[in-house]
Amino acid sequence: MSPRQVLIEATIAEVTLTGRLQYGLQWFFNNGVGDNLTGSGSLGLPADVTLTDALKSIPAGQFSYAITDSAGMVKSLLNTLASDSKIKVLSSPQIMVLDNQQAAIRVGTQQPIPAPQSIVNSSVVTSGGVDYKDTGVLLEVLPRVNAGGMVNMEIKQEVVDVGPIDSATSQRSFLQRSVTSKVVVKSGQTLVLGGLIRDNRTDGQSGIPVLYKIPVLGALFGNTSEQLDRTELIVLITPRVVRDSQEANQVTEEIKRKMREVAPLVPAS
Question: CA–CA separation, 149 vs 146, rounded Å?
Answer without folding.
Answer: 6
